[in-house]
Amino acid sequence: MAASGAYEIEQAASNSNHPNHTVQTRAPHAYLRWRNVNARHRDVLAAERKERARIRSEKGIRWGGCPLRAVA
């Protein structure tokens, strides 16, 4: 089924309760406008990730979410 992606989009559009296509496209467009206005800068996001990683490493927390046990 090569056209399954298009079919899914048509299903999502046909299952909506908007009166017409113009009204239907306003909600996603409004969300995209909001997302673009409220986007944070890449450098800020990278700095936040780095800080969270530093805190995790100080606590000894690894991928599992639990601190490492002290080896006796």
TrEMBL record:
Biased composition (Polar residues): 12-25
Annotated segments matching region Disordered: 1-28
Listed name of the protein: Uncharacterized protein
